[in-house]
Amino acid sequence: MISKNAAKLVRAPAILGLLAATCLTVSAAAAGAQQNCVNIAGTDDIKETQTMDPAFLWGEDDALHIWSVYEPLVHLDENFEAQPRLATSWDSNEDATIWTFHLREGVKFHDGSDFTARDARYSIMRLIDPAVASPAAPALSFLQGGEITAVDDHTLRIRTTKPVAEMPVMMATKFGLMVKDGTPSDVLAKTANGTGAFMAPDYKRAGEVRMLVRNPNYWDKSLPKSDCLRITTKPDPLAMTAALMSGEVDYAPNINASTARSLTGAENLQFLTSKQGSFLAMAMWTDTPPFDDVRVRKALKLVADRQAIVNAALLGFGFPENDHNVPTSFPSSMSDTAVQQDIEKARALLLEAGYDNTLEVDLFVSEIKPGLTQMATLYAQMAAQAGVTINLVTMPASSYWDEVWNKRPFYVTSWGLRSTADGLAVAHRSTAAWNETRWHRPDYDALLDKAAATVDQKQRYEVYRAAQRLLEEEGGTIIPVLASDIPVLNKKCDGAKLYNIQQPDFRTLECKR
Q: What is the residue range of 121's domain?
């Protein structure tokens, strides 16, 4: 049975010693390799919450370095289909209660030790261990009570107490990266020892610049294409524009729409077409007045003119959406069109709830994602049509995640695209660490459990749609739009893979100087 406590540290001194020796060698080699170094800039400024621990990957800023150093068993392609990485294949029994993952041979950690099924077992157990308290745990709750077994060095078996039809997709969570067996959380937070194509020998938490260098022992000898990655964060649109124009930054996985417009026609840059994006949203605490009244929550959803927000806040780079984390483009979505604005119905609901042009609330705002500030500004103007006064309280991006997110009853937020199962669980399941609306509904949780156990895809999608309808009607999240990722690449560079921005892959990226 799966233990409530992950494996204890048994070799930390040896791990750190081997890793330090390897890093000294790689750092020296990297000093002369800067001509083939790719400069990457993100926009998600998280500063002190930054980490190297995959189990606590926060957002885009963490993902840029963590996903370069560590690797998953399975990753999702741009269509959210499961693809092999450290697992080369997988299979299940007929009722999907026993899954076997066949692991890649010849893979080594950066400290020179072999990657085996024991490491995979430890990595997965960490994610569901209550003592670790990873945000991944709610989405992987189906693993509780089952067994995870390292059958041999290259075979991992997962036995669950009920069917898990989408096991490979569920295992491809952004947190599902493989760490070395026995490494404790405090070591993982500040050091880097993965199997990935890049190493981070000089990583410092909350560093302004993260320098990653080529892993000389990477299992795919044709990769990576570049010698190093220089990762920075530029939340200021003007600074990002200048850095891209000057060539200081080679690749920005996602810029805001206004920056994109200002860069149109730049001779040294190319815009890439991406299917990826982020939901721009507002979270209401459903246990706190006035948001504890479902009529108020529904009214505040109905005031949004979603297409108008796409046009004005995103300059057309996005799509109107519904109030759950499944985009209208997914086959599992409850609808292929978004909720329409209905001011009269919103007024009627508010009047029924006792608010006759008297509802006034504070909405905490920051440009933690491109477009959020303007979305909130437009939304406040729309709400005024229904007699709602929304006071925008602007906060700096650098402190937003520490001082506002999940600490105020009404605030802007953002979620990257995920698989249907992960998207519906990560922020809305009652036990979710990131349950930012404080929505606790056993009937909703039961729908997620039922979907996970439904092997037939058509029937599973119907259960997912029922969960979406419950969120739409009663949940605490307002999701007006999906903002399309706008990746920009210097024309001297090639090989950018346009996967989920929180699961980046820079192995094929290179620049010719």
A: 12-229+490-511
Other residues' Cβ atoms within 10 Å of the Cβ of residue 212: 31
Distance between CA atoms of residues 145 and 168, nearest Å: 19
pLDDT in tens, 466-480: 999 999 999 999 999
The C-alpha atoms of residue 282 and residue 304 are separated, in whole angstroms, by 11
Tell me what pLDDT residue 206 has: 66
pLDDT at 35: 62
Q: Look at residue 236 and tell me if it is in a domain.
A: no
Tell me: the pLDDT tens digits for 108-124?
999 999 999 999 999 99
Asked whether 198 and 185 are in contact (CB, 8 A), the reply is no
Asked if residue 202 belongs to a domain, the reply is yes
Q: Please report, for the domain that includes residue 401, its CATH number.
A: 3.10.105.10
Q: What is the DSSP string of 161-197?
A: SS--TTHHHHHT-TT-B---TT--HHHHHH----SSS
Q: In which element (H, E) is residue 320 found? A: strand 318-320
Residue 383 counted as domain residue? yes
Task: State the DSSP string of 24-40.
Answer: HHHHHHHTT-GGGEEEE
pTM for this predicted structure? 0.77
Under DSSP, the state recorded for 266 is: -
Map residue 479 onto helix, strand or coil: strand
Contact by Cβ (8 Å): 5, 131: yes
Helices (H) and strands (E) in the chain, counts: 15, 21
Nearest alpha carbon to residue 491 among 234, 275, 263: 263
